Every structure is written in C-alpha cells, then in structure tokens.
Amino acid sequence: MSILHAGYPQSPIVHFGRHHNVNISQLDLNHLGQVENVPRQVNNSAVGSGGAAFHHLHTSAAPRHVASSEFYDDDEATSPSGGIEICAGGGKMMANLRRHRQREREAYEDDSFSSSDESSGRPMPRYVGRDTDHVFGEFEMDDEDVEMRSGSGRRDEGKCIYGEDTDEDDYEEEESVSELLPLGGGTRRVPRTPRRKNSSKCGFFDYYKLTDEHLGSGAYGSVTTCKSIKSGQEFAVKIVDKQGETHSRKRILREVNIFKTCKGHPNIVQLLDWFEDDTNFYLVMEKMRGGPLLQHILQRGYFTEEEARRVTKDIASALKFMHDRGIAHRDVKPENVLCTDPNHVSPVKLCDLDLASQRRPQHERHPLSQVASEPDLASPVGSAEFMAPEVVDAYVGDALKYDKKCDTWSLGVILYIMLAGYAPFQGQCDDSDCGWSEGKPCEDCQQDLFHRIQDGYYEFPEEEWGMISDEAKDLVSKLLKRDPIDRFNADQILAHRWLQQSAASTILQTPSNLIYRKDSARDVQQMSEHFNMMNRLTDARLSARFDKMTMSDAASDLGTATFHGDGSFLSMGGELFGTFPRKKSVGIAIEKSRSGEFTPPISRASPTTPPPSMLDLSQDLMDSPVKRRSADDSGTYSLFSPASSNGDDDIRSPPILFLDMPSIQLFGADSTVLNSVQMTPRHTTEDEASLNSFEGEQENPIHRVETQVNV
Ligand SMILES: Nc1ncnc2c1ncn2[C@@H]1O[C@H](COP(=O)(O)OP(=O)(O)OP(=O)(O)O)[C@@H](O)[C@H]1O
C-alpha cells in the first residue's frame, strides 16, 4: 500500500462549537497584541466618558488610529477564545483575552497535546479557538510610538465620534485596563454584552481616500495609492476583499505581525496602518514609487553591475534582519523587491510578507503548530522559479525541512537575473506551444524546471557573463548552492568581497534581455505570479470549504477527496486540482511520514502540488488512531475535535478532518483499491472533562466522537 484515499460524504456533522467573528474597524499597528505589555503610566484618555470602545493613538511615523473591536458572532454569543479582544474598551473583555492567551500559551508550551491521555490513549487537544490572539501576542509596544490623540471620544478630524451610540446600560465598570492598553489610566467602561453593530464607522475611509493609481495586484488583493485625508501624503494600500475566496484573517494578521517585527528596517516596506471593515482588510504601507525591480530596470533601459550590487546588498540586509529574528520571507522574487525612487533603482525594499514564517524556539513550539497554527519553514511556499532545491525536494516528497537559506537561494536567482536578464533555471518541455513561458501551466515544463533546480546545474553563458566581474559570479555561485549547508547565509553575503566595495560600472544587457528573450525573467515573473495566484485560490477555496462546511455540505459539495496511489492527481468534488510533479510523491511522503522521516509539507507553491488541506489530510491520517491499527484492528475509537477554526483557513485541526471522513481507502501503486476502512461515527458528546479543563469556556466545546472502524 502506498497511498490513501479519503472519502467525505454521508456522515452526520459534528458540531465544533460556535463560530466567532471579530470585527475590527481599525487597528493600530502598535496596538496589536500590546495589551499585556503596556505600562500603566502611559497617559491617555481617548475613550470618551461614555465608555466608548474606541481609542486614539498615533505614532510619529504615520497616522495612527483607533483600534476597536466589536464582537459579534453568528450565534449571538461571543467568545474570548474566538477572537481578538484587543481594543474594545478593556475590562472584562481584556481579562478574557488575557485568560485566553494564557491558556493558549500553556497549550503551546504543553507538549502533552498530541501525546494524549495515557490511560485511554485518546488524543487530548489543548489548542482551541483561533490563532489570531496568538498572532497578536507577538507584538511588542514601544512607548515612544504611542501618542495620544486628544479629545473625549472624538477623532481629531472630527469625523468619527466614538461611542456615539453607546448605552450606559450596556456598560459596566471593570478593572483598570491601563496596564493593558496604552490608552489612559483609570477605569474603562466596557460593553457588558458585546453587541452587533456596524463597526466600520471609523474605517479606512475616515482617514484615507483612494486614488485611481493602481500599483499592483497579487493573489490576495490589489495595491492602490491612497492619500491621507489629513496630510495629503500618499501611501500604498493593499485591499483584500473579505468576500473573495482568498480572504483569510489569520494570514492577514500574520502578515501584519511580521511587518511589525520588521518595523524600522530601511529595506523592508513599512506597514503604517491597517483596518478591517465588513468587506475588506486594508494594509496601509509606505508607497514605493519606483515600482517592482525588474519593471524599474526595464523602464529605465539601463542597468549596471554596481547597481546590481547595491540592490543585492539591500536585499541581503533585509534578509539578515529577518533571519536574525527567526523569520524567513519565503517568497523572495523580483516582484517583491520594490524600488523606493522612480529615478534610482536603489534603495530597494522587500514587500509581501504574507508568506513569511517566524519560527518559534524549539521549547515554545507546539506539536500541532505545523498543522494548527502557524506555518513552518517546512511548508514549501513561494514561486516556482525561485524555489531552492530543498524546497523542491520537500515539494516532491524527497527531503526534510528547509530553512531560511531558501531566501538566499532566491536572492541568488534574482542576482543572476539582474546580471543577465534571464533566469538560471528554466523549465522546458517538448511542446513549444505549451504556453509555459507565457505564464500558462505546463506539467512537463514544471517537472523539467524542478529537475533542473534539484540538479542545481546552471551556466554563465559567455555572451552575457563575459563582461561581468568574477566577484559577482562568485557570489552567484555561493548562493546557488544546491546544499543549503554550503550556501551563503545573509551574513556571508554581506561580507562577500563583491558587496564590500563598489563594483564596476559595466552596463549590463539585462534590460534588453528582459525584453527580448522568450524565456526571460519577465515571463518567469508572470508565470510565477500565475502559479502563486492559482495555488492560493485553490488553497483558500479548499480551506474555506473545510472551515465552513457542515457534514451535509460536505456530502453535497466536497464529494470525494482522492489521492491516487501513483501520485498522479487528486480531486475534490469532481474538481481536478492538479497533478503531482512526480509520480509516487505523495505515497513517498506518506510512507516517510509513517516512519517519522518526513512531515508532509503544507504546499502552496503551485497548482501542481497537493493543496495544503490535502497534505494536512495525509498528516491527519498518519496521526489518527486508524493508521496505527492493522487490518484486524476493527473497533471503536474516540476522536476528539477542538473547536472549529471559523475564518482562519490556515488552521486545520486533524480530528476535524478525520471525523469528516467516513471511509478511508488504501490504494496500491497502480491505483487499485487495496482496502477500504469504514468509519461510522456513532454519537457525539461534549466531553465535560475537556471543557472543564478550559476553565468553563462554553463557546468552544470539545467534542468527542466514538467511531466504529471496520477494516
Ligand atoms: N508599498 C508598496 N508600494 C508600491 N507598490 C506596492 C507596494 N506593495 C505592493 N506593491 C505592488 O503590489 C504588488 C502586489 O503586492 P503584494 O505582493 O503585497 O500582494 P499579494 O496579494 O500579497 O501578492 P502575492 O500574490 O505576491 O502574495 C507588488 O508586487 C507591488 O508591485
């Protein structure tokens, strides 16, 4: 047996607790997650005496705004574990938040999660609720960044009146939150019961107006110029449509969090503000007026080795900064390198931190973190052309984790392209009309590309490289090392002799090659964009289904999820999601996973890779009681489900998926069904003990399903 097939339909739904939505009309970046770290003495009094749930603050860097969070949920209930009780006025909600975060920290620190209740052998999930608080919890507050707007409940522009519809009866005096929020001492009045209301009244449009200058778009949203209403200053705003399939609060929060960590670095685009309303997220950033790197080079039509050196130094400096903080960017590519000035290629800054991953120290890592909360560096993400060999390895099931050096590989690819005008590794199939170079998907080209990356073979053709200094070529070769151990890290790059002093002012052929070569990096750029887009859409669509579906939905919508034994394709609900780049890859991944050698990656890089849900699924199967059972191990097993992860499409709790599978089919290498495991959920109960262990939190009950497994 080499592969698993999981079927979803025709089982009763297991209710995973109430879902919680948090509506944050505005969140100040410095405000996020600072709630536990802010000193009492910060002088502020922005909240009106009426007890409004809004606060003002700003920093010297940019307009800062009120952060308000108003809870509502579909079931008229709110849950501290379900959301972000950051700025809603304090008191009870903040206390809930603290309790929740404390629980969450404990859950992360407690290794017992997956190891289970020893007496029963049952998995005992300790992580419940959403990951957003955890994300917020990463923030640190700089006191000097916090400056109060004055006024009693009114925004200084006078447009937004905080607490205008507050009702005294709805509030109660609570503990001081001055220790929690940088918003003034004294007692806050907080909503006794969070109410549904439109929280967009102090939204993005109260502070900015959009212009019609479109700056770019990605898989998640479009980036447009906006202007501060107050100062007229221009910024870039990434608008992510919440209605779209790509919406994920968790991802946005993670990106915001990484931005925050990278605050102040001159070569990383700075996030200045962010908002959420009923329809969109708004990430307000400094505007990079010089545009994406290759576009800039193309438009100028002129590029020198010295300029390439400066750009390289800027990127390396950004990477060093991130890597030193345990963050890998994971999507370093020319479109994510933006030029500050329209007239000069450097300085450049890295943008698009939404794939960045911050690795926790080992002792803080939770066993489920890879599947349930934050992505790990073992999750291959990024654009195909810029993937390091070890990423490709992980992608096709051949290798273990990769680390931050995937970024320095990508920098090597960018450097190569900057110097030559084409990419070092290119995929090519026999069909010249396959459309790959125009950005269309081509399985064979992609396979070829992956093979080339894995082989690590590239050349310095004399025509373009003859004029380039040996030092520059040497740095390229130090970066395009197949083995990450041999590859330069950011420190080594910065210390390399090519970066230590001015390079030659040799005029490079890069602009003309970018324009004229059929397989140019320009095409590569389009192609990688396409793949990224496709894959993220696929991810989001799948994940959204998992998040929102009921079992009856699953029966009608999901149909069958299929892993074919030869790794040739998988599908859900009759939709083809792509082919694996290599035969047997999934089978290999699962086999290695069984033996503990390999964790199936969460893959987001290409439509030709299993969507993460599916790979998580395989992980789930590996972790499930069933996998540890041999064919004659029919019996009843108890599975526990943590609460649903409504809205956060990166959270996938194995038992949920597992419970949703009434049958598992085991495939042979030729895709024939070897065996079929029937799983029949017998009944669902709330597990009181588990509930109690979560301090009586009622909104996210743990469910237990006793499942009959017949093999
Ligand atoms: N601060 C900025 N200033 C100017 N242009 C920007 C800025 N941020 C992003 N852009 C432009 O918008 C494009 C898309 O932005 P970004 O990569 O952040 O979006 P995304 O949806 O996360 O994209 P991806 O699909 O690559 O993840 C960028 O490639 C760039 O051209």
Automatic annotation (TrEMBL):
PANTHER family: SERINE/THREONINE-PROTEIN KINASE (PTHR24349). One of its GO terms (molecular function) is ATP binding. This is Protein kinase domain-containing protein. Residues 209-499 form the Protein kinase domain. Residues 164-175 have a biased composition (Acidic residues). InterPro entries: CDPK_Ser/Thr_kinases, Kinase-like_dom_sf, Prot_kinase_dom, Protein_kinase_ATP_BS, Ser/Thr_kinase_AS. Belongs to the protein kinase superfamily. CAMK Ser/Thr protein kinase family. Residues 100-129, 144-175, 592-648, 681-700 are annotated as: Disordered. Residues 633-646 have a biased composition (Polar residues). GO terms for biological process: determination of adult lifespan; regulation of protein deneddylation. The keyword ATP-binding applies. It comes from the Eukaryota. It comes from Caenorhabditis briggsae. SMART domains: S_TKc. GO terms for cellular component: nucleus. Keywords: ATP-binding, Kinase, Nucleotide-binding, Serine/threonine-protein kinase, Transferase. ATP binds at K238.
